[in-house]
Amino acid sequence: MVLLDMLVVLCGQTVATLLGRYYYNSGGNSKWMATLTQSGGSPLLAILLLLTPRDPVGEPRPAAAKMVPIYLGLGTLIGFDNLMYSYALQYLPVSTFALVAATQLAFNSVTSRLINAQRFTALIANSVVVLTFSAALLGVGSSSDGTSAADLPRGKYTLGFILTLSASAVFALILSLFEVTFEKAVRGRTLRWVLRVQMCTNFVAATVAVCGLLASGEWRTIPGEMAAFEDGRARYVATLVGTAVSWQAMSVATLRLITRVSSLFANVTGTVSLPLVPVFAVVLFGDRMTGIKAVAMLMAVWGFLSYVYQHYLDGRRAAAMGGQGGAAECCVCKARAGGEAALPA
Questions:
Q1: Which of 57, 94, 110, 209 could in theory staple to 281 by disulfide, Cβ–Cβ 3.0 to 4.6 A?
Q2: Residue-wise pLDDT tens digits, 11-58
Q3: For residues 279, 85, 151 and 243, what is the CA-based torsion angle, rounded to 10 degrees?
Q4: How far, in Å, CA of 280 to CA of 16, rounded?
């Protein structure tokens, strides 16, 4: 199930990012509409919720008075984080956007340590440093990116870079807050709870996007935008629907990984799509894969492999303990099991 969730995260994030860029490339221009697609598919989760088995008897059921403020707080945070990503995706080539967004892993390493008491080793620190330098390299080399210089007004590339970094930091915080929510408030990790939390928080985020769409007046431009869309009205609707479904699939799988392992593990899984998006962007959108982007991509992959190697060492250590008569168990699972055992009945 963990491997399946990882696959859904990879596919969902890659497809959603590419469709988001396709929306802008084909004539779409509404930031709030792009923001809405990132959380507007949440009503679809109600169908899955009806099809999933009910929680077993004795499953913790937190009071609504405790969960409603959490839904409102996290949902509002998600809504504005989606808005920053929407602006950033318009101002950056999709390959650069994907590489800079990888810094969310570095930010998540910090928030996981401070909020979730994640063990911080030398290899994880190496991952943080390498990914940070990878993003900095893209920022310094922005002037050599012919795509950005030709297609964007002056200063928009820098703004997109800053917005992507800010959105990545907020996203890392959101993942850590989701993890602590399930550990301290929900105290249940069934599929129904994952769907329930995802649906409620994203419904709040979608409400934020709808309010922004109405308040900004962008809703008046939607009919014209649809009519002028490069591939027709049907393709316009299909693009928005496909983006919304992809984001929801990715978000649910990410939340399942958070509940099964940790927020840092879920974030690392999302980083695996890093080499995929720029390659598809070069093929589909004509983005230039410059030497600087190639080096930054390799550095980001190096940062990811550092984290993977840390898990490999943890696995060998657990196996060695098992050979000495102890139970060979993943250190993350062991720590989570210990936390659950400490919960009151």
A1: 94
A2: 998 899 889 888 988 888 888 999 999 999 999 999 988 888 887 766
A3: 60
A4: 12
Phi, psi of 40 (to 5 degrees): -70, -15
C-alpha span between 55 and 76 (Å, rounded):
28
Report which of 330, 312, 318, 301 is spatially closest to residue 130, judged by C-alpha positions. 301
Output the pTM of the full model: 0.79
Question: Looking at residues 237-260, what average pLDDT do you find?
Answer: 93
User: How far is it, in rounded angstroms, from Cα 178 to Cα 164?
Assistant: 21
Nearest CA to 165 out of 106, 93, 243, 125 is that of 106
What are phi and psi for residue 338, nearest 5 degrees?
-65, -35
Q: What is the spatial distance between Cα 223 and Cα 239, in angstroms, rounded to a whole number?
A: 15
Dihedral sign (CA 65, 70, 73, 75): negative
Cα 183 to Cα 181: distance, rounded to the nearest angstrom: 5
Instruction: Kindly state the tokens that stand for 253.
Output: 């799988």
**Residue-wise over 300-333: b if at least 16 C-beta within 10 A, else e?**
bbebbebbeebbeebeeebeeeeeeeeeeeeebe
| Residue among 184, 200, 179 at smallest CA distance from 72 | 200
What is the rounded distance in angstroms from the CA atom of residue 286 to the CA atom of residue 70? 42
Torsion of CA 281, 287, 288, 292, to 10 degrees: -60
A 10 A CB-CB count for 75 gives 20
For the record, the structure tokens of 329 come out as 């168990």
Two tokens, residue 296 = 């930054």
Overall size of the chain counted in residues: 345
Other beta carbons within 10 Å of 169: 19
Which residues touch 146 (CB under 8 Å, ≥6 apart)?
288, 290
DSSP symbols for 121-180:
-HHHHHHHHHHHHHHHHHHHGGGG-HHHHHHS-TTHHHHHHHHHHHHHHHHHHHHHHHHH
Q: Which two tokens stand for residue 299?
A: 């550095």
